[in-house]
């Protein structure tokens, strides 16, 4: 009653942005002012004896709402779909005489006009935005069916039962057992996250484990991950993330706003978000990104400590974001893009500088191509875009560039990326560059002028992968991001992107008549190996090529740490033998070796180049478990030391989804 008066006085009410803060409703609200003897007692009218939330995992609500896997003793349902509660009165309910409502509130200042206070009525004559009906009556107990509005706020609600009498309203006292969670509903057609594919739904909402792809595009490696979206405390941690971002409660029913806010909150760059990024190789004050095995520990640690968790790289951001999305009911999957361009100036061009002899100039080559980069796709309609651009949307929590002043990315329509509509919100131009940039080799003369000598239009965005629904295999979805190289459709898309402000390199240098390739190598950490250069002379004349070959140790982001191999035209031995001792002391995590061969043809002056990333393979971990029903079980992990020396300070982490919480141990 005070709210309209305050607004008339010009008082600005605070925005409700906390799901954890609550507002208690009075147990009794009388109408009007008291008489000479005070307010009359309400004992002679209908009273509430008990409320059953029908919240057990094997009961109707959680089974039909696909929430039985949540490790929670609270009721968890999905919007746009009926759930039931049982209300017991002190006598039989008489529809002609008795009037009651079931009230739902969320946030610290619930308001009917904001959709944060919702009364639900049992009669057809009086309905609110949430539908209500009496499903069954037995003695003094009625079963009430309630259907939350299909676009209602997602979060944690509290439920009251209120009885109307001639003198006032009497309601149940606040009791935490009547808290309930309402989530997005990809099973209901009118929900904005509806996904009309049961196998995709099972994978992208219900599957608690997954595979994240890494390595190199021609030597793909797998990383198992426990998303654990149904684990105890994870749902509350996801709601805390939105509270911490101070996101208005009223925005939390819109998946576009939720995912955009979350893409900023999953990193800590500007908002004390969940994860601290670290690509330095020094993880003294936290956990190495490669050591994490699941999302649960990260989310629970953040929610309890209220501090960002150390440390993450792209696949950790994507994996934890995936847990957040699936937990709230937004279908999602982790994507890996091989040879992902980090283009911060929007020119769709990655520059590699060569000196006038054809040798790479590492001091002037600044652009980086990530061996792979992981982001997320989530499924939703896009009413803010023209028809046809809903469906899978890219969101990325790895802090690379700012968007509207914060480190975040998306949601960007995958279909918009494929068709060159890079003007569409949000951040479509940045994602377009990640999969479509050209690699341009420049020859820098002694006077500083630079001339393009080769353009590789197929290197970036070479392969886009995700996990196959319902199987532990990979699925190539490159064709969802781009048309085949060289096709009419691809040229049309690039022309359209240029109309929207993307600048491409238009140079078309003469193609050398000698082809150079570096072979695919499968090398384990500790192996000696040979590197061959394979030439094909497509001319009718003899060709002499002065070659440089450089081998460097790189992070997966393409950043160089050390050069372990260099050969110039005076080197006579080919293939080049590389022993373990040459590269082992320089290795960084994920053990990537980057080879680049460049040369100049003496007879024509043409430049030839080839690049290859080799991801060294770590020893394979073998996990075995033996046990009997109702007995403690022992899990054993084994691997073989590939080196001729003993290993020291070995750190082993292990968890079993639903079986064993994350454990770790140091071995001296």
Automatic annotation (TrEMBL):
EC number(s) from the headed UniProt entry: 2.3.2.13
Keywords: Acyltransferase, Calcium, Metal-binding, Transferase
UniProt cofactor note: Binds 1 Ca(2+) ion per subunit.
Transglutaminase-like domain location: 306-399
Keyword Phosphoprotein found: no
The UniProt record lists the keyword Acyltransferase: yes
Cofactor: Ca(2+)
InterPro entries: Ig-like_fold, Ig_E-set, Papain-like_cys_pep_sf, Transglutaminase, Transglutaminase-like, Transglutaminase-like_sf, Transglutaminase_animal, Transglutaminase_C
Biological process according to GO: blood coagulation, fibrin clot formation; nervous system development
Binding site for Ca(2+): 436, 438, 485, 490
Protein name listed in UniProt: protein-glutamine gamma-glutamyltransferase
Active-site residues per Swiss-Prot or TrEMBL entry: 314, 373, 396
Any GO MF annotation of the entry: protein-glutamine gamma-glutamyltransferase activity
Family membership: Belongs to the transglutaminase superfamily. Transglutaminase family.
């Amino acid at each position: 009653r005070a709210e309209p008066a305050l607004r008339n006085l010009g008082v600005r009410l605070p925005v409700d942005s906390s799901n954890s803060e609550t507002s208690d409703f009075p147990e009794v609200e009388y109408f009007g002012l008291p008489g000479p003897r005070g307010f009359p007692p309400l004992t002679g009218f209908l009273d509430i004896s008990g409320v059953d939330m029908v919240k057990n995992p094997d009961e109707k609500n959680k089974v039909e709402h696909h929430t039985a896997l949540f490790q929670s003793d609270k009721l968890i349902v999905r919007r746009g779909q009926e759930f039931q509660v049982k209300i017991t009165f002190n006598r039989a309910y008489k529809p002609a005489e008795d009037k009651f409502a079931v009230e739902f509130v969320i946030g610290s200042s619930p308001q009917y006009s904001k959709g944060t206070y919702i009364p639900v009525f049992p009669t057809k004559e009086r309905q609110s935005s949430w539908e209500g009906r009496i499903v069954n009556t037995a003695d003094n107990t009625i079963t009430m069916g309630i259907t939350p509005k299909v676009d209602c706020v997602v979060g944690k609600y509290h439920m009251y039962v209120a009885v109307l009498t001639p003198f006032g309203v009497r309601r149940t006292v606040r009791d935490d057992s009547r808290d309930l969670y309402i989530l997005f509903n990809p099973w209901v057609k009118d929900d904005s996250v509806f996904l009309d594919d049961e196998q995709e739904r099972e994978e992208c909402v219900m599957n608690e484990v997954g595979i994240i792809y890494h390595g190199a595009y021609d030597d793909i490696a797998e990383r198992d991950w426990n998303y654990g979206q149904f684990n105890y405390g994870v749902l509350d941690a996801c709601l805390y993330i939105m509270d911490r971002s101070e996101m208005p409660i009223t925005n939390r029913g819109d998946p576009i706003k939720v995912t955009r806010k979350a893409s900023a909150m999953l990193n800590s760059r500007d908002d004390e978000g969940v994860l601290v990024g670290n690509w330095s190789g020094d993880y003294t004050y936290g956990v190495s990104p490669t050591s994490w095995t699941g999302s649960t520990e990260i989310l629970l640690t953040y929610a309890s400590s209220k501090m960002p968790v150390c440390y993450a790289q792209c696949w950790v951001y994507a994996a934890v974001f995936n847990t957040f999305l699936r937990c709230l009911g937004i279908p999602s999957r982790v994507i890996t893009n091989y040879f992902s361009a980090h283009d911060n100036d929007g020119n769709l061009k990655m520059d590699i500088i060569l000196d006038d002899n054809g040798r790479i100039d590492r001091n002037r080559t600044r652009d980086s191509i990530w061996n792979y980069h992981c982001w997320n796709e989530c499924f939703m309609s896009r009413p803010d875009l023209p028809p046809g651009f809903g469906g899978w949307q890219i969101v990325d929590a790895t802090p690379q560039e700012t968007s509207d002043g914060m480190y975040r990315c998306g949601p960007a329509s995958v279909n918009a990326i494929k068709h060159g509509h890079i003007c569409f919100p949000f951040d479509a131009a940045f994602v377009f560059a990640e999969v479509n940039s050209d690699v341009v080799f420049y020859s820098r003369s002694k006077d500083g002028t630079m001339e393009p000598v080769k353009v590789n239009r197929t290197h970036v965005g070479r392969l886009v992968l995700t996990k196959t629904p319902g199987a532990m295999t990979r699925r190539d979805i490159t064709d969802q991001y781009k048309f085949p190289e060289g096709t009419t459709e691809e040229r049309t898309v690039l022309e359209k992107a240029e109309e929207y402000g993307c600048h491409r390199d238009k140079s078309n240098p003469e193609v050398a008549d000698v082809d150079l390739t570096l072979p695919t190598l499968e090398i384990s950490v500790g192996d000696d190996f040979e590197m061959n250069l394979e030439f094909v002379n497509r001319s009718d004349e003899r060709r002499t090529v002065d070659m440089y070959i450089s081998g460097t140790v790189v992070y997966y982001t393409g950043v160089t740490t050390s050069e372990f191999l260099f050969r110039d035209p005076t080197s006579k031995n080919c293939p080049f033998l590389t022993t373990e001792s040459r590269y082992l002391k320089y290795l960084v995590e994920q053990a990537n070796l980057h080879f680049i061969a460049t040369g100049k043809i003496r007879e024509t002056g043409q430049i030839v180049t080839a690049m290859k990333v080799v991801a060294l393979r770590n020893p394979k971990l073998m996990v075995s478990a033996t046990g009997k029903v109702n007995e403690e079980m022992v899990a054993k992990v084994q691997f073989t030391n590939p080196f001729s020396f003993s290993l020291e300070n070995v750190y082993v982490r292990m968890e079993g989804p639903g079986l064993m919480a994350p454990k770790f141990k140091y071995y001296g």
